[in-house]
Amino acid sequence: MIGRQKFVLASGSPRRLALINQAGIEPDSLRPADVDETPKKGELPRAYANRLARAKAEAALDAVKLDDELKGAFILAADTVVAVGRRILPKAELLDEAAQCLRLLSGRNHRVHTAVCLVTPKETFRQRLVETRVRFKRLSDQDIEAYLASGEWRGKAGGYAAQGIAGTFIVKIVGSYSNIVGLPLYETTLMLAGEGYPIHFGWLNAV
Asked: What class, spelled out in words, does domain 7-205 have in CATH?
């Protein structure tokens, strides 16, 4: 792609890819980073999200350095954490985990933290954390059982996906919606533009 600098998304998440596409950016490469996502003892949600986003960005940078075609690319990594108070909810992989998350979220407020880490072509790191407050309706047993049966919860932080069926559970959002899905678009594009990435390049050919 002549006319702009290369862009690497350090994520395998279809949701993050869809969001960055929504901003008019088509990554030249997807480089999901395999990092240990186990929270440290006593680690708070914000610190946890920041640590993982940085670790993913560093791992992607190491991979990009080995690829001549991608050297000097902008690299974007992110991590989304759902928390109730100081408690970090897991990325649910098991039915029991998802059920526990949904029961915990039922009828109460929780926070979604997404840490975004940008690596510039000069290999400097820029980081931003965005928080959104979300309130769920009180979930009935039928709500929970039907949602678990959908399988939509699998691999999702907090056991739900706001852009899917679980959107019907949300009573109120204070803050960025795209942040809940996995990438706060306003803050991300602001960071990219601030570091000289041509945000509007992809808009010229948008339909």
From this structure: alpha beta
Looking only at the bridges linking them, the beta strands covering 109-119 and 74-84 are antiparallel
Residue whose entry in the numeric block shows the structure tokens 């909810």? 89
pLDDT band at 205 (very low <50, low <70, confident <90, very high): low
Task: Report CA 154 to chain centroid distance, whole Å.
Answer: 15
Q: Which of 117, 112, 126, 118 is nearest to 176 (CA)?
A: 112
- Is 139 within 8 Å of 103 (Cβ atoms)? yes
Question: For residue 4, how many C-alpha atoms fall within 13 Å in the half-sphere facing its CB?
Answer: 21
* Cα–Cα distance for residue pair 87/109, rounded to 1 Å: 13
Q: How far is residue 173's CA from residue 170's CA, in Å, rounded to a whole number?
A: 7
From residue 78, give the alpha-carbon distance in Å to each of 91, 127, 140, 184.
14, 9, 33, 10
> Count of H helices and E strands in the chain?
6, 7
User: Any idea which residues carry the catalytic annotation?
Assistant: 79
Binning the chain into helix, strand and coil, the percentages to the nearest 5 are 40, 25, 40
Residue with tokens 């993050």, as numbered in its chain: 16
25: pLDDT confidence band, cut at 50, 70 and 90?
Answer: very high
Helix (H) or strand (E) holding 14: helix 14-22
If you search the block for the tokens 């679980």, which residue do you land on? 166
Q: Residue 156 above 70 pLDDT?
A: yes
